[in-house]
TrEMBL record:
<keyword id="KW-1133">Transmembrane helix</keyword>
<keyword id="KW-1003">Cell membrane</keyword>
<keyword id="KW-0732">Signal</keyword>
<dbReference type="Pfam" id="PF00060">
    <property type="entry name" value="Lig_chan"/>
</dbReference>
<keyword id="KW-0813">Transport</keyword>
<dbReference type="GO" id="GO:0038023">
    <property type="term" value="F:signaling receptor activity"/>
</dbReference>
<keyword id="KW-0675">Receptor</keyword>
<dbReference type="GO" id="GO:0015276">
    <property type="term" value="F:ligand-gated monoatomic ion channel activity"/>
</dbReference>
<dbReference type="GO" id="GO:0045211">
    <property type="term" value="C:postsynaptic membrane"/>
</dbReference>
<keyword id="KW-0407">Ion channel</keyword>
<dbReference type="InterPro" id="IPR001508">
    <property type="entry name" value="Iono_Glu_rcpt_met"/>
</dbReference>
<keyword id="KW-0325">Glycoprotein</keyword>
<feature type="binding site">
    <location>
        <position position="97"/>
    </location>
    <ligand>
        <name>L-glutamate</name>
    </ligand>
</feature>
<keyword id="KW-0770">Synapse</keyword>
<keyword id="KW-0628">Postsynaptic cell membrane</keyword>
<dbReference type="InterPro" id="IPR015683">
    <property type="entry name" value="Ionotropic_Glu_rcpt"/>
</dbReference>
<dbReference type="InterPro" id="IPR001320">
    <property type="entry name" value="Iontro_rcpt_C"/>
</dbReference>
Length: 313
């Protein structure tokens, strides 16, 4: 009896390099010509595909919102920006305290703004309502300068389409006028001072200006925020869950396959496990009649059993 042996082999396509290439291809939504065949591989592959789908979709949506907001943001951030340009016209109420402030100011920036307004008489309005309406209908080409208290109140009213740019230009107080020598003067002074020190004036302003606002101040924020970890925490939980589940399934598969290979090839369980672990790294293994070759050669999967050909003479 002459026995000849033919050597069978099987390769593991998902080596470390190919696994990294598979991960990159899935993230770039390109894919590769390799697909996982084991249950654990399909679980982790599906979790990774779902993760990349949500991440790419969220990034695209956030980028679109960011670019939209960039076009909406006004290039004027302060009174200096307003004074340096001529494309956006600006004015005040004719005869009001704001006009008087610019007319009497000795500051160069405000002087330049007054020269601009005084050379264009049409920028002045007769009422606050006229100036505010001009702002709403000018499509960003007109700015109305008015007292900060009035400005803050208007910005909190419907249709919520105006906003305050920059800081206050000046700080002036208002007083209650009484006749000369009136006994009400001291009583009013003490009452107003008491309201201010107790914080009643600030609470009243907050109540009627901001708490009673008809506008959602969150919608007036023209800045878009970047995606934070809390925004995408859910998808990371799904990815982590998929990885843990795939590792558990892979461990069960590894132990089961190693036990089956050891029984078929009549090897110890530890040798079969070492062979399968080596195959996962190097990509393949060889086996001939249940005997493993030297470590320099690749070791074959136990499913690829030796084939014996018997020739009887």
């Amino acid at each position: 009896v002459i026995e000849t042996y033919t050597k069978s082999s099987v390769t593991n396509d998902f080596t470390i390099c190919n696994s990294l290439w598979f991960t990159l291809g899935a993230f770039m939504q390109q894919g590769i010509d390799l697909s996982p065949r084991s249950l654990s591989g399909r679980i982790v592959g599906s979790a990774w595909w779902f993760f990349t789908l949500i991440i790419i979709s969220s990034y695209t949506a956030n980028l679109a919102a960011f670019l939209t907001v960039e076009r909406m943001v006004t290039p004027i951030k302060s009174v200096d920006d307003l004074a340096k340009q001529t494309e956006v016209e600006y004015g005040t109420r004719d005869g009001g305290s704001s006009k008087e402030f610019f007319e009497r100011s000795k500051i160069s920036v405000y002087n330049r703004m007054w020269e601009f307004m005084s050379s264009r008489k049409y920028v002045f309005t007769s009422t606050y309502e006229e100036g505010i309406e001009r702002v709403r209908t000018s499509k960003g080409k007109y700015a109305f300068l008015l007292e900060s208290v009035k400005n803050d109140y208007i910005n909190e009213q419907l249709p919520c389409d105006t906003m305050k740019i920059g800081q206050n230009l000046n700080s002036n107080g208002y007083g209650v006028a009484t006749p000369m020598g009136s006994p009400l003067k001291e009583r009013l002074n003490l009452a107003i001072l008491s309201l201010k020190e107790d914080g009643d004036l600030a609470r009243l302003k907050n109540k009627w200006w901001y708490e009673g606002s008809a506008c959602d101040r969150d919608t007036q924020d023209t800045q878009t925020n970047a995606l934070t970890l809390s925004n995408v925490a859910g998808i990371f939980y799904i990815l982590t869950g998929g990885l843990v589940l795939s590792m558990v399934v892979a461990l069960i598969e590894f132990c089961y396959k190693s036990k089956m290979d050891a029984a078929r090839a009549k090897l110890s369980l530890s040798d079969a496990m070492k062979a399968k672990a080596r195959m996962s790294i190097t990509g393949g293994k060889d086996m001939d009649n249940g005997r493993f070759y030297a470590p320099a050669s690749q070791i074959l999967d136990g499913d690829a059993l030796h084939a014996n050909t018997h020739t009887q003479v």
